[in-house]
Design brief:
2 helices; elongated
Length: 85
Amino acid sequence: MANPDRRYLTTTGRSDPASHLRLELPAPVLLRLLSEGALYAAEFRSLDAVSHRLARKLVLQSCIERLKQTKNTPFSFHSPKRRHP
């Protein structure tokens, strides 16, 4: 049976300190997460200037990686069933 006094972590926003973690991860892992779309730049912040510069570089690099992945995917503003005159 669950303990009613047990406190759970919530994700209520920036004002709740229990909802934030301070983590360190290697740059290649951050690049992979960004490139796969598993993490967005708006979902984290850098805690110092050096980390900010590296994170910015990795965000831009991940954009390049994602563009390379979609380069071979045909893009059209029109439905594939629509015929052009």
